[in-house]
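Ticket opened by: R.M.
Priority: normal
Category: complex prediction / small molecule

The reporter submitted a protein together with thymidine-5'-diphosphate and asked that the result be attached to this ticket for the collaborator who will pick it up next week. Submitted input follows.
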Amino acid sequence: MIKTVSELTGVKSEVKTMLVTGGAGFIGSNFIHYMLKQEKDIFIVNLDKLTYAGNLENLKDIENRKNYKFLKGDICDSRLLDIIFKEYDFDFVVHFAAESHVDRSILEPNIFIETNVVGTASLLCSAKKKWEESEWHEKRFLQISTDEVYGSLREDKKSDKFTEKTSLKPRSPYSASKASADHLVKSYFYTYGLPTLITRCSNNYGPYQFPEKLIPLIINNALNNKMLPVYGDGKNIRDWLYVEDHCDAIYTVLRKGKPGEVYNIGGNNELENIYIVNKICEMLDELYPIKNNLKFKIQNLKSVSYKDLITYVKDRLGHDRRYAIDATKMKKDLGWAPHSVFEEKLKDTIGWYLKNRDWVKHVTTGEYEKYYERMYD
Ligand code: NAD
Ligand code: TYD
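Result attached by the on-call engineer:
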């Protein structure tokens, strides 16, 4: 017999149930924290395979909440998905789970196709199967996508930005897999009327980001007296979005967005990579000067600034030159705009990494996998 949410949890049955996939990753874990703060009548199921990028330590403070449940599982496992959809009768699906790092997609593209394309297809299929048993017009399936599906912009035409009407021209295996998933999501809307929405955001930064992405990698390498690799000429441009602004935008789209629509989410912070790397070094020089950093005691005693570690390296293959988001539709249709000031939030983020050196150590040594075993096995 199918258990209701109230039978499973003791939480009253009017609560909305939400499936978050990939909730142990960077944005997913920030989103779960955010949602639990915003909504008291919500029950969140976090389905995550716990790949190298998934870390339950990110959710340690809420793991015993009555209205939160973690399930270890793969979004490509259709049987498992059918069981979960039956058991919880979700009102919302917020789909973050993905392989998310461009450099990895260049080295090993196939896992990106498996997770990002096949996984999304499986999720859509299970959602439709369950939701078509009754009225589904109030349900929402939100695909978390990326501005990278639009391809690359010219750096010399600053007025060019990605709008929701820009055609998809993905150029890396990662962005091609996300674009394929977006097409599948749209196909379920057009073919079956499944109430799907897509958000496409720019580069996120903030707490709990795995130190393979630019900002946490630079912070972590600098603190450990390792070189700070800048690809190519360092002048590639990304638009940086603070993760909490992103969570707020997702919440807005879930409440006010129209099924079938795409919404671009950006931070209004177009910056060259080298600017960011220099900024991080300057902030670290102030917050944690090299003279206090034990990692510098043995070698490199002459360094006075983390900037001495900056090293230009070979460019990434097919490196997209510039991304820039036009988020007018979010503002005009849904009343959302980003609030964060880049320099302030970058400083907060550096502060978070300085305070959470153990978290970084655990994710870089694989120690965090033991956390799952202790908690759930
Ligand atoms: P992340 O790599 O930090 O986390 C991904 C999560 O998905 C991990 O917890 C991982 O264990 C889980 N996962 C991977 N394969 C899975 C599978 N087969 N089944 C279940 N779970 C699986 O990613 P992120 O940076 O938090 O990104 C989240 C989403 O946002 C992704 O879809 C990504 O494409 C998109 N996005 C991210 C950014 C960014 O700047 N980080 C920008 C634009 C879009
Ligand atoms: P990244 O954080 O990997 O995000 P994405 O490739 O999805 O935009 O990289 C952001 C930018 O920083 C991108 O232009 C590549 C560049 N980069 C470096 O210069 N050095 C690095 O070590 C990394 C990881 C990225």
